[in-house]
C-alpha cells in the first residue's frame, strides 16, 4: 500500500479549491463510508476518490468524525457533544444530556438528517455497519472512557434516548410526542445519571 | 352503514371452515389493518374482506388484538403480556418486564416478525400509524391504567426497551449485543421499576 508510487498519482483531476470542492469531497466521502464503513475509510482514500490532495481534505475537515458528520449532514459532531456533556457538575450530567438530545432533535432541520441515517441503518446492513462503527467508536466508547463508566452502561443510556427520539418523532406515540422538555428531563434525567455513574 | 341489507350479503364466497380459512382471514386482516389502521379496523370489516361470516372470524380469534398479532405474526399478544407483568410482587415488576422482553426477543423466530413490523413502522407512515395505534391502545395505555401510572412513564419504559432491542439486534452495538440477560436485568430493571411506580 504505502509502496505505491504515491506522489505522481496525487495530481488532482479537478482544480483544488474550486467552488464546490468541499461538496465533491463530501460526495466522495459518502461513497467511501458506505463502501468501507466508518473504521476502514481513510482521509487518504476519500481524497483519492475525490481526486484531490489529502491536504485539501484536511483543510476542509479537521477529523474523520467531522467529515462523516458533514457527509451525513449531521447537525452536530461527537467533538462538539462530548465537551458539552463533560462541562458542568457531574451530578447533573444525566439532565444535561437529556436537554442536549432534546434540543438538537427539536428542530426538523437538525433532526431529519439523523432520522434519515437511522432509518437506513434500520433497513440496510451496510448502513447499519457504518452507523454502528461511527456511533460506538466516535461517541459511545469515547464517553465511556472519559467518564470511566462501562461501555454497556453508556449504551443503555443511548438506547433510552434512541427509543425516546424514535417514539417521539417517528412512531409519534402520545403523550410522549407532545411532552415538553422539562417533563422529559425530570423523567429521563435520573435514568441517564445512573447509567453515567461508574 | 348498519342499514345496508346485511344478512343477504353475509353469504360467504368461500366455504366456511375450509383448510385455509384462517389464513384467508389473516390475509384480509393484514389488508384491512394496513388500510384503516388498528383503531378503525373492525372484525365485521375484516370478515367482509375475507368473504366469511363475522362469527367465523370470532371462532378463530377472540379479540381484534389477537387477530392483529396473528396477522403480523407477532409471537405474543398484549393479552398474554399484561397478566405476566401483573402477576407477581409489584416491587419486581421492572425486572420481570426486562426478563420477558429479553426472552421473547432472544429467539429469531419470535423476534423477526416484531423487527419486521418495527422496520416498516420506521419507514412507512401508514405502517407507523398502524403500529402506533396497536402499541398504545392495546398495550401501553392498558398497562398504564392497570398499574395506575402515567402513560408518559410507561412510554419511557417502552422507549428504553425498544432502544435496547434495536441496539442489540438491528444496530448490533457491542457490548450491548453480547450482554447476557442477567447483566441487562441488573442494569435495566431499576429503570423500568422507577417508570412503573406511580
From TrEMBL, chains A, B:
Organism: Nonomuraea zeae
Superkingdom assignment: Bacteria
Domain HTH tetR-type: 19-79
GO molecular function, one term: DNA-binding transcription factor activity
DNA-binding region coordinates: 42-61
Lineage, uppermost ranks: Bacteria, Bacillati, Actinomycetota, Actinomycetes, Streptosporangiales
Keyword annotations of the record: DNA-binding
Name of a matching Pfam family: TetR_N
Protein name according to UniProt: TetR/AcrR family transcriptional regulator
Amino acid at each position: 500500500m504505502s509502496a505505491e508510487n504515491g506522489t505522481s498519482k496525487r495530481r488532482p483531476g479537478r482544480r483544488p479549491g474550486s467552488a464546490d470542492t468541499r461538496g465533491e469531497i463530501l460526495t466522495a466521502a459518502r461513497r467511501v463510508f458506505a463502501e468501507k464503513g466508518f473504521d476502514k475509510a481513510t482521509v487518504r482514500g476519500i481524497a483519492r476518490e475525490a481526486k484531490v490532495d489529502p491536504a485539501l481534505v484536511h483543510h476542509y475537515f479537521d477529523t474523520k468524525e467531522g467529515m462523516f458528520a458533514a457527509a451525513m449532514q449531521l447537525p452536530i459532531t461527537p467533538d462538539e457533544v462530548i465537551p458539552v456533556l463533560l462541562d458542568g457538575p457531574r451530578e447533573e450530567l444525566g439532565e444535561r444530556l437529556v436537554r442536549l438530545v432534546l434540543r438538537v432533535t427539536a428542530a426538523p432541520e437538525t433532526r431529519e438528517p439523523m432520522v434519515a441515517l437511522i432509518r437506513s441503518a434500520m433497513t440496510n446492513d451496510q448502513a447499519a455497519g457504518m452507523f454502528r462503527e461511527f456511533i460506538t467508536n466516535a461517541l459511545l466508547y469515547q464517553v465511556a472512557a472519559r467518564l470511566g463508566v462501562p461501555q454497556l452502561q453508556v449504551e443503555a443510556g443511548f438506547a433510552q434516548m434512541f427509543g425516546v427520539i424514535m417514539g417521539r418523532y417517528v412512531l409519534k406515540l402520545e403523550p410522549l410526542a407532545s411532552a415538553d422538555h422539562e417533563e422529559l428531563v425530570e423523567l429521563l434525567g435520573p435514568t441517564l445519571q445512573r447509567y453515567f455513574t461508574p
